[in-house]
Fold this sequence. Notes:
With 126 residues, this protein is α+β, with helices and mostly antiparallel strands. The protein contains four helices and five strands; from the N terminus they run βββαααββα. Strands 1, 2, 3, 4 and 5 form a five-stranded antiparallel sheet that branches.
Amino acid sequence: MTRAPFEYVVLRAVPRVDRGECINVGVMVYSQHRGFLAARWHVDPDRLRMLAPDVDVAAVEAALEAIDATCLGEGPAAALAIGPRFRWLAAPRSTVVQPGVIHAGLTEDPGAELSRLFERLVTVQG
């Protein structure tokens, strides 16, 4: 299989937007060439509460579930093709879950790339 371009963003939980502190909670990968758009996420409530003891963890998870749904073509952006859906999800916003900057690369398997990036950028290596 040949390598194809892909783009990704890190999804960050920002429990207090006014402070700007964040924790990586997910990754979203898009490959136009492969027709792929998916996200993978995990919220560690204890880590999140270190930034904001009163954070609404359920709200963070609900925002991430909405991103999942949008990747699958559900919700308000359902009528959009996957490229515009990715752009909509990757657009800067001031909410409890924010996308980072868009990065690009080449991959043979966007699904495997999603797993690799998730392990590298979201899980706590200890």
